[in-house]
Model the fold of this input.
Amino acid sequence: MEVDAEPKTIAKPRGQSRRRFLHLAAAGAASLAADKVSLAQGVASKPVGEGGVVDVAIIGAGLAGLTAARDLRRAGCESLVVLEARNRVGGRTYNHDLGRGVVSEAGGQWIGPGQTAIADLARELEVDTFPSWYAGKSVVLAGDARVAQDFHGGTGGDETIGARLGELARGVPSGAPWKAKDATALDKLSYGEWLRQQGVKYEEGYFLALAAKLTLGGAPAQLGLLHYLSIINSAGCNYEQLEAFKGGAQETRFVGGSQVLSIKMANELGDKVRLSRPVRKIAGWDRDVVELHTDQGVIHARRVIVAMNPALCDRVVFDPPLPQGRAQLQQNWPASAPMRKTVHVYEKPFWRDAGYSGMVLQVGGPIFMAYDNSPPDASVGVLAAFVAPGMLPSDQRAAEQILSSTYAKAFGAEALKPKQFHDHDWGRVDPWTLQCIHPLPPGFWTTWGKALHPAVGRLIWSGTETADLWAGSMDGAVRSGHRAALQALAGLAQRSEVA
Ligand SMILES: Cc1cc2nc3c(=O)[nH]c(=O)nc-3n(C[C@H](O)[C@H](O)[C@H](O)COP(=O)(O)OP(=O)(O)OC[C@H]3O[C@@H](n4cnc5c(N)ncnc54)[C@H](O)[C@@H]3O)c2cc1C
Done:
């Protein structure tokens, strides 16, 4: 997929595909309530070779950017390019290769009920799914204490609190929390403060805090209540559906790992995907043709889909500067929400034979949650873990040993001899993620939320953070890609009206 030359000369879409492009452009324009659009002259631009301008440049080859590119292509728009900073696609999805066709996901991995956009994409790409393994007893470790309990795929949290959260979440639109009737009051509180007001006892508090950390990457004291409610709203206002394995967002995995979705899309797109092309500067976003300055030359485009999180957008130079609201949203978006995931590989998932689920929760230790991440045929046993940043040595061997002996406390001495160990610290590996999930603080949405969606000049904002539903998840990324493609088609259609 890597080519060095500028995008190739691309013919206008013709016949059936051209009609389809126009049809979809019209649908896109209508659905976005754009100004009146005339499609009489078509929307296809000059081929790239003529003037070297692409219709659409997409920044970021994660799920959002690749979905947008795929939609545009399927609508007949061939004049596009995807610029990716890394030397791989998939962004926050990344497969650890364990050999013999087995992978363990270092980033996003689970999907669940209601996440229909990513499920549909997987079906189209012929990527199968399989149920996550959670049967059996989980082990909670606290100092020398060890408790084994079957959570039956649930959260171990508090039903009353779950019901109250659900009730509040009903009034908070997932894609625009700042529009909630009580937005100002709700956004003053952190989730931690709210829990205190509910008189939550320590035991429930532990599980509730763990759930928030795993879902949103932040401790309750750092998380805005309004933000958390907007995410719960995506899950049908059902807190349990957000946090659980059984019937929840952790229920299902992809055969071959989640990154395979991006790899397949990139393969379809061929040389339209350009790797190792970080965009450093975007000039002339207020003009008809925008300049994208990469480490390997300048790309000119009529529309730009920016498919990366707002904190990363803030690393790009905009000339002229962005309007104040958008610039401040980017500047204040949390730029650090590190997550470290480790993988122990064993001969087989031996804990299952003894009636354990593979889940380990450690109070006051480095493990937030370890879980069985074995492949569907259980040909090897995989224990993956989310570990607390800063609580485990960065030295790989030392980290592996500490975790192995913790697993031995949970499941016995067999855990001391993993065949492989992998470690992916998203906070340290590269600068192209910055934050895994977005733990927005109190006050964020009501101050800057309004600037999240509106296009700025020729720039269309995408990426999971901009999704109307399931923001922060892989499903949200796909949804945001679909929406951005429609916005780009609508914009090009409008352009044709005045041509
Ligand atoms: C540890 C972890 C666990 C997770 N678990 C889950 C889960 O179980 N389920 C779930 O649904 N979600 C999960 N997520 C979240 C999910 O992975 C993301 O929401 C989703 O992958 C985001 O996709 P995206 O396309 O919006 O952004 P990204 O994947 O971040 O893609 C953005 C792309 O833009 C590129 N880029 C950045 N800056 C530039 C630049 N200047 N120029 C060019 N390219 C640039 C990046 O390299 C990247 O490839 C998890 C994430 C992490 C990290």
About this structure: The chain has three domains: 15-90+258-322+456-498, 95-136+252-257+340-425, 155-243.
